[in-house]
User: Fold this.
Amino acid sequence: MSAMDTTADDAEFELPQLYRHHVFACHTQRPPSHPRGSCGASGAQPLWDRMSKAIESQRLTDIGFTASGCLGFCSAGPLMVVYPEGVWYRPTAPEDIDEIVESHFKQGKRVDRLVMVLTR
Amino acid sequence: MSAMDTTADDAEFELPQLYRHHVFACHTQRPPSHPRGSCGASGAQPLWDRMSKAIESQRLTDIGFTASGCLGFCSAGPLMVVYPEGVWYRPTAPEDIDEIVESHFKQGKRVDRLVMVLTR
Assistant:
């Protein structure tokens, strides 16, 4: 099959996408003493609030932002994943959120310093 | 740029993917009388339980299954989305779940009769 055929097939089967980027941000909150830890216990909520507000105030209507349950890798949190590209980020400071919004969401450039490469 | 160059560039920038398919299933539960409706009020939970158990019992370790908050489109629920392909499904019966698992997750074939094409 030639490259041309592949492109035609892909176009035929692809669906229109609702979002350019769809973010899922872990909202799991376990008690601070819980042995597994949690994104909530690692300070996730103020970061997700900041991201949600930035998306809304900057009218980034093609960015979806959805709360998620546990994404696994609890000790690595706060954890979020951006699809369709499957980039996992671990932001820990407000500036990290601002950089993801500006670079990844607005310019389409991954923020490598915040990427978590996870393996099963 | 040739097709070969494109492939090389893509490979350089792509990250290894944690999951072949990552499912986000809406777990929002509003009271039955709530005007917005909710996936929970539309009978989502037994369907998600069935999917979660099927993934586990069939050892589909490259399928991620994560609970999500509200995905929007509440009146269309129960609603789930599969990334990276960005396919939104509205299963309503146990057989729908079985077909998504068998066809989409195991054979990589989208189940068109259950697809929701959503627009903002």
Summary: The first strand of chain B starts at residue 21 and ends at 26. Residues 64 and 108 of chain B are 15 Å apart (CA to CA).
